Amino acid sequence: MKNKKILFICGTLNQTTMMYAVAQHLQEFDLFYTPFYSDGFIQTLAEAGFMDFCSLGGQARRATEKFLKNNNLQVDFKGVSNDYDLVVTCSDLILPKNIQNKAIIHIQEGMTDPENLIYYMVKTLRLPRYFANTSMMGLSNGYNQFCVLSEGWKQIFINKGVDADRIAVTGVPNFDNVATYKVNDFPHNDYVLAATSALRETFKFENRSQFIKKAMSIANGRKVIFKLHPNEKKDRAVREIKKYAPGAIIYTEGNTNHMIANCHTLITRYSSVVMIAAAMGKKVYSDFAPDELERIIPLQNGGKSAQNIAELGRSYL
After folding, report:
1. pLDDT value of residue 226
2. What angle do the packed helices 234-244 and 208-219 form, to 10 degrees?
3. What are the helix (H) ranges across the chain?
4. Which CATH fold would you assign to the domain 5-176+299-314?
5. Could you tell me if 169 and 144 are in contact, meaning their C-beta atoms sit under 8 angstroms apart?
6. Same topology for domains 5-176+299-314 and 178-295, yes or no?
7. What is the pLDDT of residues 270-313, one digit of tens each?
8. The CATH number of 178-295 is which of 3.40.50.2000, 3.40.50.720, 3.50.50.60, 3.30.365.10?
9. Neighbours of 147 (CB within 10 A)
10. Number of H-type helices and E-type strands within the chain
């Protein structure tokens, strides 16, 4: 069994730590990691720096490479050095050619984008899935199993057209034990947390001044903390917050989950942080209706999701 090889395809730091958590339960195998990658023209664009707004490059790629290096993990860039028996990934928007004949476990990375006009165009015209970003998550059906956050998410993906037999409600690392985030050393408590997004960086519209003013209005005198999305242009975001919310506290880095645990209210847009906040019972203002948010609360299983996914992967070995 020691000769069996597993490739973990990473992406954002959130995705990478998910991969690492699952790998801890598969130590009897030879484990290798790679930053997210593609084939052909898209990979060429990524290597030229034109895909720095996503996990193919930029800050997301640098954070993953730093994590892999700091944890002394075996890296096989683009998975070219070995013939793998199993591949574990957090995205099926791109399934590189060299893994398409492998057993694949796909883990839900978090929130999916709304099903807008681009989503329906991509689905109807069968355009490349990445054009519609995460709204197309799971729709490749090019994996053996799709591990999702909860029964509610399973139904969402079935409604989109994902093969129900391929969906496993395992829970997902980083979302499955929110109680642990309440034990932290974040120095603030009982504030309004405004978690920004990287919508503009991914070529979507956002009225940031309106978002900032809304946060201040909801706070109504309570302390306000802005936590910037790791992929957004920080200089611009800081400048805007200082203009429309003078006196607010700004964090460009830090553990967002700890900040959510200590806050009174969370304000965000269409973001995975709403699931953490909802699972903690926080008051949430977002693009989600309350009943919809209740439906997507992630399974809380005391942190067993990584083991659940590992056991599923082991069954293919």
Report:
1. 98
2. 50
3. 13-23, 40-47, 58-70, 117-125, 151-160, 208-219, 234-244, 256-262, 273-279, 290-295, 305-314
4. Rossmann fold (3.40.50)
5. no
6. yes
7. 889 999 999 999 999 998 888 889 989 999 999 999 999 999 99
8. 3.40.50.2000
9. 25
10. 11, 11
Q: pLDDT under 70 in the chain at which residues?
A: 1-2
CB atoms within 10 A of CB 78: 17
CB 238 within 8 A of CB 197: no
- Structure tokens, 114: 């709304």
Domain boundaries, the chain: 5-176+299-314, 178-295
Q: Which two tokens stand for residue 271?
A: 């973001």
Place of tokens 């083991």: 307
Q: pLDDT of 70-100, one tens digit each?
A: 999 999 999 999 999 999 999 999 999 999 9
Residue type at position 291: D
Residue 138 CA to residue 148 CA, distance in Å, equals 10
Q: Nearest to residue 11, comparing CAs of 77, 71, 90?
A: 90
